[in-house]
Fold each of these.
Amino acid sequence: MNILGISAYYHDSAAALVADGDILTAAQEERFSRKKHDARFPVHAIECCLKENNITLRDVDLVVFYDKPLVKFERLLETYLSYAPKGFRSFLAAMPIWLKEKLFLKTTLKRELAALGGCEIPDLPQLLFAEHHQSHAASAFFPSPYEKASVLCLDGVGEWATTSVWLGDGNSLTPHWEIDFPHSLGLLYSAFTYYTGFKVNSGEYKLMGLAPYGEPRYLDLIYDHLLDLKEDGTFRLDMSYFNYATGLTMTNAKFDRLFGGPPRKPESEVTRREMDIARSIQIVTEDVVLRLAKTVQKEQRTQYLCMAGGVALNCVANGRILREGPFEDIWVQPAAGDAGGALGAALAAWYEYKDMPRRANGSDAMGGSYLGAKYADDSIESYLDSIDAKYERLEDDALMPRLVGMLEHGKVVGWFQGRMEFGPRALGGRSIIGDPRNQNMQSVMNLKIKYRESFRPFAPAVPAERAGDWFEIDEQHKSPYMLIVAPVRPEHRISMTEEQQQLFGIEKLNVPRSNLPAITHVDYSARLQTIHRETNPRFHRLLTEFDKKTGCPVLVNTSFNVRGEPIVESPEDAYRCFMRTEMDYLVVENYLLKKEDQPEWEKDDSWKNEFELD
């Protein structure tokens, strides 16, 4: 039975194909449309799912949408009524699209599917709707290695729920309790993202990366005025400080007065205030999540925790749950945001709607999250020839030593191989890689390759079997999806002098903290990715070869894109990004390209304005 899951119309639309419970293909629309966080109907993502598996829409048995629009509409109406007459402008702005499209989403979806499949609406597969947090919970539990586990979902808001707790057991997910809108940890974090001048729904990573530069000077202010946090982790927000329930902004004038001024203007200088605010709200978020995790384990007496929802992408909080929480292990859905809802909806239909048995055999059903398209040599070569690109084709026995030599000499390499990753992180399929021992690598990658803020840290990729030698993570724990932060081991750290300890903010950036300065954050932490031979043998081999030559099994791994642009999907995307940046080499499968050998590329910086900078 083929089940197609779809998420769309909010942000990060995606499609996923599940056959008899096996996850075959999953992809985000943004990778094809080249519009970051694209929310439109995922035409290209669906086509990818069908094409990769040599089927048509007529071969699909069920199509499942990831939330229930009528319930969401009920929440909007009740919210506007409860705040009336406030929010009237927002109400007028929201209603036309609901009355025209979203309220009749079933008809819209059928029309889009019929156009895509070239068939009549009566011939379409059966269409089902899952609940938003049900989709999150299914995406977290069903692909996990556990037969039984607690499930914690935290995001901005679905229909009503912003936090939900479930018990996963076999093929069933039982909801236990939830916290409803407007009280939302995700929206609280997004409010501070907005206030510090970053873009909501994409700038949260920046806020998390900025936090270690600051001090928690605003901690008491948040607890005393914004958040009523109980010992069990449940909470309520004082909505008089926020505008997101009915307004067009996240925070209001009362919030501004509390924090001593208006929000930072986007693209302006990041000051000490923003750093301290980031540190404060990050600590609050970790505290809430840790308390919730302890409460869930106390109530359900389980050994394992699964997580999804946008807040589950906060890898610092996840690291604390792993180190300080009551669970033996945790598993976080790599596409934890709305894109993963497409996969969760399909899995929920198979296991819960169809009541099919599930046998968790201790393995991760996401397969490293390499669920997108893979490109064959003939299509790669055909494209490269069509633009007169200069390349060598090398087998891995010759290619790997060449790459190691390049990396060892400080070169930055675009690494494109295998299937595209599903989720917001590049995991060694569509990555930019470099030598983490190089003191200048972080600034070079940020400013000359990624065109992004200099303070943002990079992630280390390390073979799973070597992770414990360099980072404080137990041998039985894994971090294949870059969703766990772990400290660098003490023996690899560089102690700071008394003078260096007096530095503040971005000044800390230029002080090397370890033998791997490019991936060590100012608090000695690293956003760790463990590479497994079973799921990505080629990247694992490169790391192993680098270790043999240098004694270091770690490489910098960042996503193959520039700021404001989605991760590359095709060889064409990869070559374009390669030529527009100061990358030195590009590897597309077994094709090696050197920048200086390429035909002249017309210098055109207008592309930077095509995408909304976040």
Amino acid sequence: MTPIAGGAALSLAFGFSVLTVVSLILYTRSGDQRLFWVGQRLSLAISFFVFMATFILTYQLMISNFDIDYVARYTSLETPTMYKISALWAGQSGSLLFWLFILSIFATITVIQNQNKHHGLMPWVIITLAVTQMFFLVLTNFVTNPFMPTDADFVVANGNGLNPLLQNVTMAIHPPTLYLGYVGFSVPFAFAFSALMNKDTSSLWIQSIRRWTLVAWLFLSMGIILGGWWAYQELGWGGYWAWDPVENASFMPWLTATAFVHSIIIQEKKDMLRVWNMVLIILTFTLCIFGTFLTRSGVMSSVHSFTASSLGPIFLSFVFVIMIVSFGLMYLRKDDLRSPRKMESFTSRESGFLFNNMVFVVMCFAVFWGTLFPVFSEAVRGTKITVGPPFFNQINIPIGLILLALTGIGPLLAWRKTSKESLIRNFTFPIMGGLIGAAIFLFLGYKGYVVISFSLCVFVTATILTEFARGVKARTNKFNESIVLALGRMVSKNRSRYGGYIVHLGIVLMFVGFTGHAFDKEKEFSLMVGESDHVAGYEFELTNMSEAERANHYAWISELRVTDHLGQFVTHLKPEKRVYFHKNPDVNRRQPHSELDIYSTMNKDIYSIFSAVDNENGIAFIKIMVNPLVRWVWIGGYILVFGTMIAMWPRKDS
């Protein structure tokens, strides 16, 4: 396999994407079934050549073929094999090819999965996916080709190597997971667009993409959580979410997608919210493309983003085309999208879902405005205003607490209308639990949003437990089953509902972790061997400082002995100060990096960073953070994934 073959494969894929669109459009005009089969097979050929190009580039990365510019920029002879593979999505052109690769996998599965069904929807589904592939093929063929030869008049003996921040196991997993979420929403969007083109606004397209939506939402959620884990473990600032523009780029489609996941339930069950569902899936897909634009245009400054390039206007044009065509088509189909049923009561589950959706969209707009405001400000006034975490926290914490409350309120409401008696019966135990929790937290000295957040967590947990207890009690009374057997069969027969409740429980635990941020403590100090300092009731003694030369970096290693306020030993921490590419004669090419060390418990994390070293005087500059309840964020993430997998599982009739 050669780079020339990779470039040829991309060119052939582009040609087949054009032929696919042309043949299927001709089919929609003529009805000639032969054109449909030709278009279907041509679409599979697009994916085949994309697969070939991706495998060729991966192979060139692994063998360190520095004749390819991309390989020379993002790998070196010293780069471990795992990170040579992950270099595929480390740079601009490679990440676009990887985006296209995942889209081609999903397109192939969609075509094969539906080759004998949904004949009315599939032509425009394939056209939509092929047009999206065509867009990325234009970029990888004509704008930023990953197979471009190295522009040098000498033999390149070694490459630049991968950014040290990316040489992390989590970072090798996080981008593919996030991409699976981003790209996954292409399929639901394709079915929605096809439904609009065919004037088929029934729930058929919803039923066709329900599991696709959950899969994409799961991967997007996992990608965001893994990104937070990577930031916490690798960046050394002590947090997992900084409202960074690129973090926001993944969070915005997650918000609209979460609203969509809830909203499709209403259309499936009640044939309502047709317009909402169309709007939400269009926004979600558009925001996925927009997020890709943010990371690759250079318009936003971020630790995650790529350098400035000519891709920005092209991506932005594609975003506007998607929105104009999709919403224009929605306007033309406005009569078909009218739901035959209306909301009957404010105190109904349908209205609860609708209000929930509105809050998600409001939060999405708040994040969007805060993210793009600096760009708008610079364009209009010529001065760039920084919008940091305080703005986002001030706006989104109250909205987040409203969403947390709705997580507990929604399941307690009945379909169509909830009677006064049902409201009293269903809400008594959860509200009492929340109020008792609030009283306890106030007694312990907590204030403000901390009390509200913890109390709402108690309220939502009580709601979830009530729903499970009610279902188990009904089965034990009806079938005389044991509690464990009743619980298992109840979840098995209604996986969507109870899987959703488990997801909600995971989100509650994540909120517990988020709220712990209010109690963070930190301190920076310098130590010589034998000296100590105190932070948040812990003593940190520098017992040793050593040096080590490793395969791709040089490290100074500090050893900290940690004891509590009683003088009892807690743990040893060994944060490092590293210099990557330390042998490079060009001092500017050497990359310093702090490899932190964390002692984690259920209650709190002790987070240590070796900020700098004065080698002549033997002084280590240390930063310590004590972060309460962080582990609950990750535990909540595990439970969220587990609940989503249950909800995704094929349903059984009760």
Amino acid sequence: MKNIPRIFILLAGLFLALMPANQAAGQPQYSSSPTNALSLWQAGHAIDNASKYITVEPLSEKTDYSIDPGSIKITAVGMEFDAVYRKGRKGGTKHLQVNVKDLVKVSATCGDHSYCELRPAAGGDKLGELAVQDKDGVQYELWFGWTEFERPCGSAEKGECIQSAYWFAAALNGLHELAISHPAGLGDFHAQAAAWRALTTKPALAENARILRLAAEDAIKRQKPDEALNDFELGVQADPTWAQGWFNAALLAGELGFFADAAEHMQNYLELLPDAADAKSARDQIDLWKYKAGQSPSAAQATGVPGKK
């Protein structure tokens, strides 16, 4: 494959060695200006991190629910999660779904008070266009950073809340764009990988993935490994048979502490190239990443990109 040489991606390790080693496993070190084009993986992390500031309110009653971060699942066409009554309130768990294809582009607004909120990027007072509903079709509103009863973005957490707001908006926008461009989902990765392996002559890298490869290379030169990771992940979303993209994304994810993602990315690389010269060392690295992620060695299997939890 005549893609980015692996020795080039290894330079990222030198850049990362200059970064403060103060992040916990799986916790991203976000920049202050997220792009609106987030990969499924980075969108998932952004939503997880923002979950404690998110409130959902049914239109039919005056109460509110918080999100169970461990229940969040996103795919190329939607997002779902469990919502529970806030602490001190009695009630069951609601399973909610967000039709990300029907979302409007949003922006985060953080004022001088102790809350942030999301607004339609085209203007408007509130984000009423979020299609959030439970299995019975009951409609909910989704709010960020405040509720009728409390304001989660207290002064002590103001900076973190603002950062989470911008990244949450970027995640919703990215999921919306992906749902539009892949209305039927991204297909089964295992079937795509098998069909690609069977080809005698492998097709050239898809043009949009090639551009994303160039963007990732540029991000590495600018010592922006988080941007490079996102570009590589967007690249494999655009062309899931880009084996080198999975490999590069795996290395960067591992260096940034996204160990579960790193193991998944490398597993996808091996599904495309099971007989690669570095297959044994790649499998060893997968086991190490799974261990760091708290997974058993057999926990992760190749999954491609259709869904993330």
Amino acid sequence: MDVVVTGLGVLAPFGRGAARTFEALVARRSAIGPITHFDASAQRSRIAAEVRDLEAGNDLSAADLRTYDRFQLFALLAALDAVRDAGLGEGPLGDRAAVILGTGIGGLGTIERDCETLRGRGPRRVSPYFIPSAIPNLAASLVAMRFGARGVCLAPASACASGAHAIGEALWMLRAGRADLALAGGAEAAVTPLGVAGFGAMRALSERNDEPERASRPFDRGRDGFVIGEGAGVLVLETEAHAAARGARVRARLAGYGASGDAHHITQPDPEAAGMARAMALALEDARVAPAGVGYINAHATSTPLGDRLEAKAIRDVFGDRPPPVSSTKSALGHLLGAAGAVEAAIAVLALERGLLPPTLNQEDPDPQIELDVVPNEARPAAARHALSNAFGFGGTNASLLFARS
């Protein structure tokens, strides 16, 4: 059973709207700058790709803004945009509509604030909304409530692969006939004092604090870690029959999904990159597409020294000596953690639609150990028929999504 993409919703550091994000990428803009959400002067890494304006308009109430964690608000706004883009209206979607929205961490900002309340003012002053605002599944549940989607409601929590896993699991659910339509993706809001300090303590973040826009440099010899970001991405997926019955515009086909686990280390990828390669190979096999049929890869490539090199190895293991063009849009967007796979899936769909591959910024001194056709610094016209989007996470969790041009 074919599954199609009929709606895209993105809330990212460039603002609200999938097209807005894609156009900023093509224009070589960077969303990375000094942290403004809190005083970061004592942090190792003092830069991030922040959502500085929710641009909620009338879509969120004052009570919503007071009550829910930012990752939940991000998810609601991205889902609203995706549903509108799909032409669904906002009425009840019914029993055959699923919501699968992942997150890597969940309501970290809420946890930090209520811990301070507990220590400073005692347990009776902790908010009654603390648990609902902190737990990872509530973004999916709030979206389901907003749209009356009474089918399966799930929240994958697989680190930085969460959003991609959500989309892939929705694909399998639709193919299995367990739903006709799904809202799938991920949301994250971990640009908080503890989030930045935690990744900083692992020495995972770039410390190029004086040059924020040049800090994220995937595949470049000078890379020194990722730049944390935040946001949400939601795709509307439907069975082809359901989309056709309502006359929906098809933006792309979700042709394949591959998932694997490294079973190797809590943070470091398998040094042979076998799990990454297996996820990509399984996505191709699922779609019945040969490696030569892929015209673009939106790489996970976070700008870490080890991760980028191993992903490059995995790509060559799957695609051979002439892999397709590759870019990492984290060079401009930062790393959106559990939302990254969903936002980058939307970018891959737009790359197919527009025949334009977004660039990898800050490609000044390509790493000689990385033998890929990295799209450097300028967007590249290309009429790709298939695009692969990768997402890999701590714990050795891997997901690859393969989209086909409609």
